[in-house]
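Problem 3 from the worked examples.
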Amino acid sequence: MQLILQQLGTLLLESLPTAALFLVLVFAYQILVQGPLSEVLRKRKGLTSGAMEAAEKAIKDAEARAAEYDEKLRHARAEIFKLREQRMKQWAAEKDKAVESARGAAQDKVAKAREILEADAASARKAIEAAAIDLGRQVVHAVLPAAAGGTR
């Protein structure tokens, strides 16, 4: 057992330079490699997250602008529809006015034609009455003897 302990002690004494070298290498690794690498990764993460935040902000801005454009487009369409409705109403009013004017002119022509027709009918009646009276006299003269007022 003494031999084992002695061998163990010798092993430990001989491994001390290796352990010291290992510790020096670990510290050197920490200072030379891991520190700068961690710094680069931290900067990279900062830049990446900054870029991500900038991209998200740009997306939100684009969505806001798209919503604004949609709203403006909706208002423009409503305005166009409103103007179209006003024009349609105006045209309908103008058409109604023209129809009413034409109707009034037609009624005036009909009234004038009716007056002319009634005047012609009245003169024709008078002519017929005069002709009937004259015809009646001729019949009376032709049928009745001269003493009764006839020509025979």
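Problem 4, a separate protein:
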Amino acid sequence: MSELARVHLSKSAPEAYKTLAAFSKAVGAIAEEAEVDARLKELVQIHVSQLNGCAFCVRVHVERASKAGVTADTIAQIPVWRESGVFSERERAGLELAECFTFIHEDGVPDDVYNRVGAILSEREYVGLSWILVSINAFNRVAIAGRYGVPPREDLVGEDRDAATGAAW
């Protein structure tokens, strides 16, 4: 195997990837049932993807966050969430929990974090958010191991023009 070409895990083992996608869908249903809102869900998935260095998943979840109404300013503040005033108490709890799940090998979820997050989120929300964190960490590993590309965006003005004329489809 060369440094440049990597096995594309989702294409090389489609049944495994379909299973991971089904897992992700089940996790989404659990999170929705637990009333984990789209904003929090996307914020933590961006943060995990940033921490893991997964450019592919960062792009996916920034787009989803934007559709959920998260501003560019808020997205830009994610890496410095502790110093920023733009996040709610619930979002701060989610971002802290995201770090624990991403670096689980270091300390697991320490008691002080578990207790602090548990004082803010309901048990159902904690469970839903935890499964989201497990899922995004798995997807990050698939994309990073396969070096999924993130090419530059085309000229957005041109894209808008094509979309307006129907040429994009």
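Solution to problem 4. The chain has ten helices and no strands. The first helix runs from residue 9 to 12.
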